[in-house]
Write a structure and sequence with these properties.
Mean pLDDT: 97
Radius of gyration: 20 Å
CATH superfamily of the largest domain: Isopropylmalate Dehydrogenase
Family: Belongs to the isocitrate and isopropylmalate dehydrogenases family. LeuB type 2 subfamily.
Distance between the termini: 22 Å
CATH topology of the largest domain: Isopropylmalate Dehydrogenase
Protein name: 3-isopropylmalate dehydrogenase
Order of helices and strands: EHEHHEHEEEEHEHEHEHEEHHH
Enzyme class: oxidoreductase
GO molecular function: 3-isopropylmalate dehydrogenase activity
Largest sheet: 10 strands, mixed
Number of strands: 12
Strand order of the largest sheet: 2-1-3-12-11-4-5-10-8-9
Bound molecules: 3-isopropylmalic acid, manganese (II) ion
Catalytic activity: (2R,3S)-3-isopropylmalate + NAD(+) = 4-methyl-2-oxopentanoate + CO2 + NADH
Length: 345
């Protein structure tokens, strides 16, 4: 019999509530001969207020031994902006070399799009996860004076770009439409932009069947709204990918449905799966959060660990649930129960 060793980081706000439902569905979908061993880690705002720690070294070392990590959400208004984001979430992504930040944008049948008509949206954003302006390469000078200066330097390495671009080509190659769009801003960010464009063209030589396209990020935001059906696979840098995937969520039924995987394809470190949404302190503890994004992240986790049939079952359960939603509000656990019921039926 097989065992999945899963580290669970519910985190802050609605993170707790949605992760409980994700685990409910995971438990329900796994075959009887697969054992699920979960270990919960208390990280986030409470831990920070209690001990001053965000991600202690011993916890980071322990986390390495798991098959995967399921994360809820990080961030709380009682903690200064950036402390938990950098000290916990980004620290995990960087320490475990999660260079593929995979974010599907899919409009499920029956989900109302805010866009005119009901466009067919089914793309995936391959967001670079370990470089760009997220590396924290910056500083402040003359702090507190009228001449204060702040810099954030975007780091782009040929190695880092090549691996994410090649991953995106492979994904495009495996999909029916075989189309890959590079999104950057190479008319202004010429140094990084030209490196991305050059490597995109070079790696493309290995994938003659993949149709390629390039868009500046500002133009891409227009097409996300006016022509989302033109996208299949998108590859982009860390910050552009962050912004575009919130927009992707907005046009595919909202942030309550948007799933993500922070993937280390080599398996050297555990990959981490989390809803794209944040901790939503305004609705935390009220049972109002939609756990669907977490449940879809669990499907990505299953797929990553080689349980493709179970991943498909979870996606089918979500699709069926979405198709039958009437608009009557259900609680977080009611949605989780309904999805767990569907996957075990
Ligand atoms: C996300 C979030 C994070 C990011 C923040 C919380 C650091 O917005 O997962 O999209 O910017 O990547
Ligand atoms: Mn974001």
């Amino acid at each position: 019999s097989r065992t999945i060793r899963l580290a669970v980081v519910p985190g802050d706000g609605i993170g707790q509530e949605v992760v409980a439902e994700g685990l409910k569905v995971l438990g329900a979908v796994l075959p009887a001969d697969v054992k699920l061993e979960t270990t919960e880690y208390d990280l986030g705002a409470r831990r920070y207020h209690r001990t001053g720690e965000t991600l202690p070294d011993n916890v980071l070392a322990e986390l390495k031994a798991f098959d995967a990590i399921l994360l809820g959400a990080i961030g709380d208004p009682s903690v200064p902006s950036g402390v938990l984001e950098r000290g916990l979430l980004l620290k995990l992504r960087f320490a475990f070399d999660h260079h593929i930040n995979l974010r599907p944008g899919r409009l499920f049948p029956g989900v109302e799009s805010p866009l005119a008509g009901q466009p067919e949206i089914d793309f995936v954003v391959v967001r670079e996860g370990t470089e760009g302006p997220y590396v924290g390469n910056g500083g402040s000078l003359r702090t507190g004076t009228p001449h204060e200066v702040a810099t954030e330097v975007s780091l782009n390495t040929a190695y880092g770009i090549e691996r994410v671009v090649r991953d995106a080509y492979r994904r495009a190659q495996a999909r029916p439409r075989k189309k890959l769009t590079l999104v950057h801003k190479n008319n202004v960010l010429v140094h990084a932009g030209h490196l991305w464009s050059r490597i995109f063209a070079e790696v493309g030589q290995e994938f003659p069947e993949v149709t390629t396209d390039y868009l500046h990020v500002d133009a891409a935001t227009i097409f996300f709204v006016t022509q989302p059906e033109r996208f299949d696979v998108i590859v982009t840098d860390n910050l552009f990918g962050d912004i575009l995937t919130d927009l992707a969520a907005a046009v595919t039924g909202g942030i309550g449905l948007a799933a993500s995987g922070n993937i280390n394809p080599s398996g050297e470190f555990p990959s981490m799966f989390e809803p794209v949404h944040g901790s939503a302190p305004d609705i935390a503890g009220q049972g109002k959060a939609d756990p669907t994004a977490t449940v879809l992240s669990v499907a990505m986790l299953l797929e990553h660990l080689g349980y493709a049939a179970e991943a498909a079952k979870v996606e089918a359960a979500v699709a069926a649930d979405l198709a039958e939603r009437t608009g009557a509000a259900r609680s977080t656990s009611q949605v989780g129960d309904a999805l767990a019921g569907r996957v075990s039926g």
